[in-house]
Amino acid sequence: MSQRCPVTHVLDTTGRDLHAEASVLRTRGTAVRVELPGGVLAWSINDHATVRRILTDPRVTKSARNHWPDFIEGRIRPDWEMISWVAMDNMVTAYGKDHIRLRRLVGKAFTPRRTEAVRPLIERLTHGLLDSMDATPPGEVVDLRERFAYPLPAMLVAELIGMSEEARVATAKVIDMMVDTTVTPEQARAVLSDWRGAMEQLVAEKRAEPGEDITSDLIAARDEDGSRLSEAELCDTIFAILGAGSETTINFFDNAITQLLTHPDQLRLVLSGDASWDDVIDETLRVESPLAHLPLRYAVEDIELEDVTIPRGDPILVNYSAVGRDPKLHGENADDFDITRRDKEHLSFGHGPHYCLGAGVARLVATVGLSALFERFPDLSLAVPTEELEPLPTFIMNGHRALPVRLTADVPAGVGTR
User: Fold this and answer.
1) What GO molecular function terms would the record report (predicted)?
2) Contact predicate 396/295, CB 8 Å
3) What CA–CA distance (Å, rounded) separates 200 from 106?
4) What local confidence, expressed as pLDDT, does residue 18 receive?
5) pTM score > 0.70 for this model?
6) Residue 302: inside a domain, yes or no?
7) What's 34's domain CATH number?
8) For the packed helices 359-376 and 231-262, what is the interaxial angle rounded to 10 degrees?
9) In a domain, 321, yes or no
10) In whole angstroms, what is the distance from residue 184 CA to residue 82 CA?
C-alpha cells in the first residue's frame, strides 16, 4: 500500500491538557507518529476500533527485549526518561508462552472468590480514612486526593502484597516519579534502581518470613510444568501489581469524585438508586481514563492500518484519552459525562491477553469507596473551580496534583467560598 509521510507530533510532557491533545491526535489519523522524551519516536493509536484490534493482534508485543531493535541494540540510554516502562521483566512485558506462564501464576491471586474475600479489608481501610476526616472543622479545605483517593488503593495493594506501611510510603514516591514524564535522565535512572531495590528487599523479607499475601504465594508458586518465576520476574511482577493496582485506581477516584461533584444531578441519580455505582465507574473510565497514553508496545512485523503502515520494530502507544471519547463510537456528545448513556464501552481495563487481572478488585474498591464517601459526607463540594485543578505532570496518567474539597456545607462566618 502507499504510505503517507507522517508528521511527528511532540507529546506535551507536562500533560496540561490531555483531552485537547488527544482530540488533535485523533483528528490527525488512526495512528500518528509522536515524539517521546529523549527524542524517541513512537506511534499513538487514537481510534477505538483500531485500538481493540491492536490489543488483540499477535503481531503486537510488549516485550522491548525481544522486539524493539533500538532497545536491543543499545540505542535507548539506560537513563532514558521512560526506561522503567521498558526495562521490566514481568507478565506486563512478556510475550507468547512466557506471558501465558506468568499470567497464570498471578491470576491465582485475583479469582472472583479471592476478590470478594478482600471486601472486609477494603471496608476497614475506607472507614478508617473517613474516620480520620470526621474531625475536620466546618469550612476547612481538605485535599481529598491526599487524604482519600491516594491512600485507599495504595494501602490496599500494599496489604495484598504484604508490604509494610513504611515501605509503601517510600515506594509510593518512586511510583509517582515513574509516571512523571517531566523527569530528568538522572531521576529516571534513580527510579529504576529504587523500585527494584524496594522489591528485592520485600522478596527477601517474605522469603525469610512468608505470610498470607501475594508475594509469599508467588515465591512459592509453580505452574503446571514445574517451572517457577525467575528472581527478576518475581520482583518486577510484584512491582507491576503495586503500580498498576494503586496508580490507576488513585486517578479513577480523583476523576470520579470530580465528575460527580461537577454534575450534581447525576450524583443525585446514583444516591437515589436511579443509577448504579457501576454506571459511575464505567462512565468515568470512558470519559476520564486514568491512563492517558500507555507505553509501550512494539510491532513484531509491519502492520498495515487504514492510512499508514507501522514498520516492524516501531514502538506503539495506546491513546486511552482519545479512544474513550471517540465520536465514531459515542457520538457528538462523546466528551460529556453522562452516567445514563446506554453505551459506556471503554478500554480502560485493556482488552485481549493483557486485560487487567485486577479489574474485579478495582471495581470493588471503587464501589465501596465512593458509596461510603458520599454517605459519610453528603454535602461534599469542590473548594475551587474545576479549571483551577492542576493536572499531573505526565502524558501517561490522567489526574490532578490535588483535589481540594469541603466536607460539609457549614462554613463559619468570615470564611469565603474560595
Assistant:
1) heme binding; iron ion binding; monooxygenase activity; oxidoreductase activity, acting on paired donors, with incorporation or reduction of molecular oxygen
2) yes
3) 18
4) 97
5) yes
6) yes
7) 1.10.630.10
8) 40
9) yes
10) 10
| Interhelix angle 231-262/185-208, nearest 10 degrees | 110
In this prediction, residue 7 carries a pLDDT of 67
What's the farthest any 2 CA atoms get from each other in the chain? Answer: 71
| CB-based burial label for 76 (10 Å; 0-12, 13-18, 19+) | buried
Instruction: Name the DSSP class of 388.
Output: G
Q: How far is CA 60 from the centre of its chain?
A: 20
pLDDT given at position 278:
97
Predicted pLDDT of residue 203: 92
| Of the candidates 336, 362, 330, 325, the residue with the CA atom closest to the CA atom of residue 262 | 336
Report how far residue 60's alpha carbon sits from residue 55's, in angstroms, rounded to the nearest whole number.
8
- How many alpha carbons lie under 13 Å from residue 162 in its C-beta half-sphere? 22
Domain count within the chain: 1
In Å, what is the CA distance from 137 to each residue of 134, 149, 151, 416? Answer: 8, 20, 21, 14
What is each CA distance from 360 to 42, 115, 355, in whole angstroms?
A: 32, 7, 11
DSSP assignment of 151-181: HHHHHHHHHHHT--HHHHHHHHHHHHHHH-T
Cell 469550612 belongs to which residue? 139
| Structural domain includes residue 412 | no
User: Is 208 in contact with 202 (CB distance < 8 Å)?
Assistant: no
pLDDT recorded at residue 103: 83
Q: Which amino acid is at 214?
A: I
Cα separation, 366 vs 153, whole angstroms: 9
Residue 411 is assigned to a structural domain of this protein: no
pLDDT along the chain (418 residues), means of 10: 62 97 94 96 96 94 94 96 90 79 83 92 98 94 98 96 92 91 94 90 93 90 63 87 91 98 97 97 98 95 92 97 95 96 93 88 97 97 96 97 92 46
Print the domain residue range for 25: 9-406
- Residue 264: the pLDDT is 97
Alpha helices, DSSP H only, in 57-184?
Answer: 64-67, 69-72, 83-87, 97-107, 112-117, 119-133, 144, 151-161, 165-179
